[in-house]
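Appendix B, record 7
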Amino acid sequence: MMIRGLRAPTRVLDLVRRALFVNLHWTQIVLKNMVWATLAETVVRGLKFLLLPILARVFGPAEFGRFAFAYSFAAMFDVVFDSGLALTTTRELAIAKANEHLLPDILLMKLALGGLGMAGLALGMILITPDPTTRWMILVLGAAFFVLEMVNLSFSVFRAWQRMEYEFMVRVAQAVFLVVGVGWIAWRAPSVLNVTYAYLISGLLTLGLVLVAMRRGPWRISLRIRRDVWARVLRVALPLALASGATTVYMNVDSVMLGYFGKIVDTGWYNVAIRITGILLVPTGLLSLVIFPAFASTSTNVDATFRRRWDTWSAGMVAVGGYIACAVVATADPVIGVVFGPAFHPAGTALKILAITVVLIFIYTPSFQAMIVFDRQRTLFWCLLSAAVVNVILNALLIPPFGLYGSAWATVATHVVILGELFVLAGRCTPLRPVNGALVWAVISSGAAGAAALWGMWAVGHAVWLAVPVGGIIFAGVWVGLRKSAASAMVASW
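Structure tokens (predicted):
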């Protein structure tokens, strides 16, 4: 009897193991990866979000702005450290497992690019600021970003293998290392320079963990340059690197230009808003992270099933983005006041402006991914480069008179340009139609649902803990109702 009684729990555990640790079929793999990616983002973003109010409250807008300036400038060299190799690795390994023989050469490329990137960063920091402490902060953060790019390359392998559970463990470990390090510094030795050391040390500890975990796998460095392999990899990676470089520019240049124009306090305020925006965009990263390998592996057969899945993904992205933007508009001011204190009140208005950016990114992300899935990286580069140029020009014009609000509107305008370009280019250069009936109806439904949700959240007032779920229930109810009405109308028309 006892043995029979134990069978049910054993079966449950076996089902859980198979669902979360075994790759069975397309739908199960997507769901499994979504679970692990969601857990990773929830835990990691939750831990790292603790850093933002800690740093802001301990150092205040001015010193936090100084750190943000150094961080943003160093982050712009991520494009050199990565050079498109992470996404190229995922793509190549997802297409064929036999391509694992490329990994040693890719690691050698990474090391070479690290030296090139650090040299460029050292030259650039001399030109961008005369302050020796800020220069040293930039150098330490640059080294930290290079180390983390090495870690990110291991994630490319895990994603190609459809093993997001491995990435979950490494990412959580890195976040724990970082939060513990920054927390200890804020308590025992508070200075923004020491915070940069915490970033570097946490990265080194994480890389050590990866090296131990993959010591018997393909994680080894080639001892010679194989020209044919380098040419093959770089042919795919360089267009991605150029596109990523343009993206990196418009994501970081606003903070760099705010600091360059001497608006350090504005830099602190703006970075609170822009970092919260980054957290709000987590679902785009999650969905893209999980969907990209699955679509890449089936991109040679763009049939009705492929298009239906793509349209479903696109509509879902519009809905999620619309609700998040409404929640931001309704709750930005009280959240900023409670979490960061009254000294950061101007960040609330900037965050409301950036909510427009959130919607735009959710809408165009599927088109962005389509350009990569169907090997249109060079075209994507020109799209993002033109947007980066627009961003730099607008920041130069708007920052001097308007400060952080000028940067926020420059960011919105940049993403309007990207959305328009991607819709046109994805329609011309891929087998998909980004602007179709499914997308238009999703936008209309999200607009109506968002207006109702916003009214509901405003009616609740400043009780954020109640306003957000109430808005979510209203949004979901209106969205589902409109979708069912549309489906019924289509059936009736037949």
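Remarks on this record: Confidence is low (pLDDT under 50) at residues 489-494. The radius of gyration is 23 Å.
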